[in-house]
Automatic annotation (TrEMBL):
It comes from Sneathiella marina. Pfam families: YicC-like_C (PF08340), YicC-like_N (PF03755). InterPro entries: YicC-like_C (IPR013551), YicC-like_N (IPR013527), YicC/YloC-like (IPR005229). Residues 184-297 form the Endoribonuclease YicC-like C-terminal domain. This is YicC family protein. The lineage of its organism: Bacteria, Pseudomonadati, Pseudomonadota, Alphaproteobacteria, Sneathiellales. Residues 3-157 form the Endoribonuclease YicC-like N-terminal domain.
Amino acid sequence: MTVNSMTGFARSIGSFKTYSWQWEAKSVNGKGLEIRCRMPAGFDQLEDKIRKLLKSTFHRGSMNIQLQFENTQGEQAYRVNTVFLDELLTLANQYVEEGRGQLPNMDGMLALKGVIEQNDIAQDHAGNDELQAVLLESAAEVLANLSSVRAEEGGRLSPILNAQLDEIEILVSRAKEQIVDGPDNSRRRLKTQMDRILSETKTLDEGRLEQELALLATKADISEELDRLSSHIASAREVLNGTSDHGMGRRLDFICQEFNREANTLCSKSSDKALTQTGLDMKAVIDRLREQVQNIE
């Protein structure tokens, strides 16, 4: 199965008649799929299609896609809004006739906001079905490139994840070796401490003492935590080597939470310095693993 990262960048260019364009698509980490589109005015219908294409290609990540349009024949980029200019001149004449002003000069009129406006040639052709078809094809190309970049980045993450799982597995094995005599050692240590306390009195029932010592030794037993850690390692490897990459990042993130919970319990139960250090080393590796998992789709 392919491990896909959520980070990547891709660009593609295209042309149609007198127009050329450039698509840019980039993605970063995100809890879900977040899409932001920047299109020239008038391309709302195309934006809806782009969003559907993105949703069919990606499952997670904060996605940004932008379309830049250019007229290759050098048509004028600005035009005079004659309707607005005529309205201003009519209003100016009314003020002159009423004696409340003088006729403005043309330079002043053209300088007014809204008289000269940008000539959005792209918007004039936004409804062209043929143009939209080639733009959509070009968008599909840039998204395919982005998907390849994310897969390539994910390919670099895969051996890192497996190596970190190997580290956790080694630490679990070390902890199992450290607790071979763990319950008995804890029981003997507790009994020695109690014998010292009770050296001057015989009022405590020996049978009750044995029960309490057995209970404390049972609470200090971490064999179940280690078994669950081994099970989580197997689950993580199944996710990485499975047949579907859908939801891989979320499942691995959940497994990391379980890893961390068991490692915390191990450290809290341990009364042995070496075993506690093993638990702390395990937590450090789990933190590094979780950081990498945050990059996976």
